[in-house]
Amino acid sequence: MSKQKMNVLVVDDKINERKAIVEILEYERHALIGSIYEAGSEKETLDILSNSIDIVFLDIWFFAKTEGLQLLIEIKKHNPLIEIIMVTSDGSPEIIRKVVDHDVYNYVKKPFKTDDILVAFEIARSLREKNLKKELQDAYIAKTNEAIDEIVGISPIMNSIKKSIRNAGRCKDITILIRGESGTGKELVARALHKEYGDPKRPFVAVNCGAISKELVESELFGHEQGAFTGAKDKKLGLFELADNGDIFLDEVAELPLESQAKLLRVLDGSGFRRVGGTVTMHPHFRIMCATNRNLENLVREGKFREDLYHRICVYELELPPLRERKEDIIPLTESIVTKISIRSHTPKKVCSEEVIDYFLNQSWPGNVRSLKNILEIMVINAEGKELQLRHLPGNKIERLEQKTLSTSGNDLSFDDACESLYEESLSRGVYDVIEHAEKYIMQKAIHNNKNFAQAATSLRTSRVNFHNKMKKYGLHEKNERILTKESSSK
Fold it and tell me: Could you tell me if residue 420 is inside a domain?
């Protein structure tokens, strides 16, 4: 394993003694040193500290001529983990005691020999390397905790999900499926799972399968060789290769074409893959995490998602609840989002009025946390003072809310409001799922009201043939078998 190169600063107002230390280090330890800096004054020293210094050789009488231990204190204040080597001409107990009080234990006595400088440097380098490892570890632990903390929630279901993230995150080879409506935070959970593993060097590759055109899916996932197709001027590494020894997150996995699903299955079964136009089989090692807002079981039944792939990715599942099912999290979520917006925009933190909180608590949030975040972004922009009020809501949401409340209480929901509700639902479930669900509901309602398929078709202004075909598609024949039997017997 290669050793960490150190940046060294030599501080002494006597240029000859300063150069002597620099020459020894450059000649004897050049392979272990990144850069060497020199300072002949307190100001130069403080200016150079911005260059990520690891080790400082500090002449003890140099700082004694300023304000006692002030320079030593300033260096430690800049970075407590910098290793300081005191260079002294007497090494008196009084001086040693003073520097030890400031966690400095390494010193060289003048006149020094080459070995004195090298031994002191090696001790400092070893200590600093350990500190660097600790810094990386602490930073990674902080980022991991930060990733978990990003998932804001005090509800029992969210606490359970956080626990599952901690448990599953440490499993290197398990395949994870994250389910949930649009806007529930599936990628956030995937990133938390990645960081929970505890290795900052592991790559994390995220890809939205629904955003890649059918023609380019395999090129994006598996890469391509130069000249593999028109426009392939250079070789391209696929996302699976880039995720080697790490994690790959396939968002909207249900949108993958069936042909690509077959290749993905081969990869998961250990058969590897070839770049488009390539002949060499690749076998990268990675953990795969998938996410979807679709009902995979229904897609399997409809032949739109491979059953074998379904069983391969449904190993460890996490189901993220919609915001409407964890309303106790709305207040902490709101506070967290507003705080982040304020920090990002360098503006004083704002608070929500009680009316706004009540409004939020009474919403169904079809767009979930993403929708809440978008609304708060606009409210913070619209608000002049420190309080977010109902009038700061975007557009005419208040008017629409009042109209819905009044019309619903009178059982007279307007067609525009109904379409608005369907649109919002489409954002979380997908437009085709919503359309099919609405069509099935309308047909069943017509059958129930008319007690006759022919009359139901007529009431909906559609042909009997089309109506029966749709019934077969949605399985309505079995559900309404009694009516079908009655209709047949009357013929």
Answer: no
Closest by CA to 351, choosing from 324, 406, 388, 314, is 388
- Here the CATH number for the domain that contains residue 397 is 1.10.8.60
Give 382-400 pLDDT, tens digit per residue: 888 889 998 888 865 544 4
Q: What is the 3-state secondary structure (H, E, C) of the chain?
A: CCCCCEEEEEECCCHHHHHHHHHHHHHHCHHHEEEEEEECCHHHHHHHHHHCCCEEEEEHHHHHCCCCCHHHHHHHHHCCCCEEEEEECCCCHHHHHHHHCCCCCEEEECCCCHHHHHHHHHHHHHHHHHHHHHHHHHHHHHHHHHHHHHCCCCCHHHHHHHHHHHHHHCCCCCCEEEECCCCCCHHHHHHHHHHHCCCCCCCEEEEEHHHCCCCCHHHHHHEECCCCCCCCCCCEECHHHHCCCEEEEEECHHHCCHHHHHHHHHHHCCCCEECECCCCEECCCEEEEEEECCCHHHHHHCCCCCHHHHHHHCCEEEECCCHHHCHHHHHHHHHHHHHHHHHHHCCCCCEECHHHHHHHHCCCCCCHHHHHHHHHHHHHHHCCCCEECHHHCCCCHHHHHHHHHHHHHCCCCCHHHHHHHHHHHHHHHCHHHHHHHHHHHHHHHHHHHHCCHHHHHHHCCCCHHHHHHHHHHHCHHHHCHHHHHHHHHCC
Q: For residues 310 and 261, state if they share a domain.
A: yes
How far, in Å, CA of 456 to CA of 443, rounded? 7
| Co-location of 71 and 195 in the same domain | no
Residue where a domain stops, chosen among 273, 299, 319: 319
Shared domain check, 338 and 308? no
- pLDDT value at position 485? 52
Q: How many domains does the chain have?
A: 4
User: What whole-number distance in Å separates Cα of residue 315 and Cα of residue 327?
Assistant: 29
What is the distance, to the nearest Å, from the Cα of residue 447 to the centroid of all Cα atoms in its chain? 47
Q: Which two tokens stand for residue 464?
A: 């009997």
pLDDT tens-digit readout, 126-156: 887 776 655 544 444 444 445 556 788 888 8
pLDDT at 350 over 70: yes
Strands 351-352 and 387-388: parallel
- The percent of residues above 70 in pLDDT, for the chain, comes to 83
In this structure, what are the phi and psi dihedrals at residue 309, rounded to the nearest 5 degrees? -70, -40
Indicate if 408 and 454 belong to the same structural domain: no
Q: Are 224 and 275 in contact (CB under 8 A)?
A: yes
What is the domain range of residue 117?
A: 6-136
Least confident of 179-188, 197-206, 359-368: 197-206
Residues 293 and 182 occupy one common structural domain: yes
Give me the phi and psi of 2, to 5 degrees please: -70, 145
Pick from 66, 62, 67, 65: nearest CA to 85: 62
